[in-house]
Amino acid sequence: MKIIDKISLALVIIGAINWGLIGIFNFNLVDTIFGTMSIISRIIYILVGISGLWAIRLLFVNNDN
C-alpha cells in the first residue's frame, strides 16, 4: 500500500469517526477543536472529501502482491 493510500485511508477513518459522533451524540469533533467552519476546519473537510474520492480507487486495485 502506497503512502498516499495510507494517508487517504487515515483521513477517511477520521471523517467516519466524526460523522459517527455527529450521528450518535450530535457532537462535531472537528468544529469543537478548530472552530465552526474556520479555515482550518474547512481544509480538513476538503481533505477528508478528497480522501474519500481517492479511497474509491482502493476498491478496484489489486493488492495481491
Description:
The protein is mostly helical and 65 residues long. It has one domain (3-58). 75% of the residues lie in helices and 0% in strands. It has 3 helices and no strands. It has helices at residues 3-25, 29-34, 39-58. α1 crosses α3 (39-58). The N and C termini lie close together (10 Å).
Q: Given the C-alpha coordinates, what overall shape results?
A: elongated
Strand content bin? under 5%
Sketch the major β-sheet: none
- Helical element count? 3
In the predicted model, the low-confidence regions spanning at least 5 consecutive residues are none
Count the beta strands.
0
Q: Report how far apart the termini are.
A: 10 Å
**What's the helical proportion of residues?**
over 70%
Radius of gyration: 14 Å
How much is the average pLDDT? 92
Global structural class: mainly alpha
Number of domains: 1
